[in-house]
Amino acid sequence: MPVLGMLRASFAEQQPFAGLRIAACLHVTPETAVLVRTLTAGGAQVHLAASNPLSTQDDIAAALAAEPGVMVQARSGVDRGTYYEHIHRALDGHPDLVMDDGGDLVNTLHEARAELIEAVRGGCEATSSGAARLRKMAAAGSLGFPVVAADVSATRRMIDHKYGTGQSVLDGILRATNTLVAGKTVVVAGFGPCGSGIAERARGLGAQVIVTEVDPVRALGAIMQGFRVMPMSTAAPLAELVITATGSREVIGAAEFATLPDGAMLANAGHFDVEIDMGALAAEATEVNLAVRPHADEYVLADGRRLIVLAEGRVVNLVAGEGNPAAVMDTSFAIQALALAWLACGGSSPGPQASSEHLSQLTAGRVLDVPEAIDAQVAGLTLASLGTRIDALTDSQLRYLESWRQGS
Ligand SMILES: NC(=O)c1ccc[n+]([C@@H]2O[C@H](COP(=O)([O-])OP(=O)(O)OC[C@H]3O[C@@H](n4cnc5c(N)ncnc54)[C@H](O)[C@@H]3O)[C@@H](O)[C@H]2O)c1
Fold this sequence. Notes:
The chain is α/β, with parallel strands linked by helices and about 400 residues long. The protein is built from 17 helices and 15 strands. The strands form two sheets. The protein has an eight-stranded mixed beta sheet with strand order 9-8-7-10-11-14-13-12.
């Protein structure tokens, strides 16, 4: 993770988090360990809880817990009660800054630990689903501090959602099923950056890809890229593999379970495990054969059709695979680390310069996009790590682009 390596060196010098406590709720993986070390190099004390018990790697949790300045509350496979207990323990550190992945930490902070809000300078949310929850809190005037939505970044959406998730979701599905994708009809629900990446990769493996959408602009984009688009009710009877990537709930449910072909596989790439209606499927099933392969459960319906659910309907690339490759997380975590440094320093040094509009929103309990300057810095560092140089605008070009007086 060379980009975080470069940031770690500059944070070690600039100490943007000197004396500050960060409560973080993240997938406890090797990549997160590199992020945590970047933050502690910048002077932070980090209290880490897991953002998903199924993705926690216990050896990583143990290794991090042994490091100075890091407290870890995470164990693989814990139940829901223990999951929230761990979040509470991370909040016991009285954070100055928070870093969340899905919104559970910020939500718990507001719902159950409101006495801690005043001291929090700001936070950073990793996912679109988490940011959507925070925007609702902000609209209701309930968000007690500014939060940067790390996914609202052109660099992040390209590298992480489209190319990273596109690849790793197919990788997770292949590990769980060892199925041949070529020739299969694959239905991708949602054509955001994640869904479009998944659709492209499935097509690259030879699948016939159908896209379902609720947004006409995104649906049109899918058509223009050569995908078939139709409602889920029409797509389901054709689907040999359904992959949901919407951030919404019950995208595939009882009506579709009634029409899916025998042997159809269902996988979810969205952040929460609500996109496949697992309650309805369990109610419809006359027999459930768990773990017919690792991370593949078979649901037998009354008419004998079998539906195969991968990774229990949770994020398939994290549960059945290893999540996004380290190179992807390098870019995403660099954005989060810089956003947090920028918040720690009230929008001034050592983060890059942000627009005055961003600075004016810093104290308002708003959900902010990643400042363009951070996006550009991370893209530049990533290019540098790849050994790629690019051109710079000349003075004459700059003057031309900035002036409205010069026409053709
Ligand atoms: N698995 C991973 O590693 C990973 C990585 C990044 C993001 N995510 C998650 O994936 C999901 C999608 O992310 P994104 O960045 O593409 O989000 P996005 O919000 O940009 O795109 C989601 C798309 O789904 C569409 N949609 C919503 N409801 C739908 C429905 N009922 N049927 C069909 N389409 C519907 C929306 O119109 C939108 O175009 C989110 O939950 C996000 O948190 C997962």
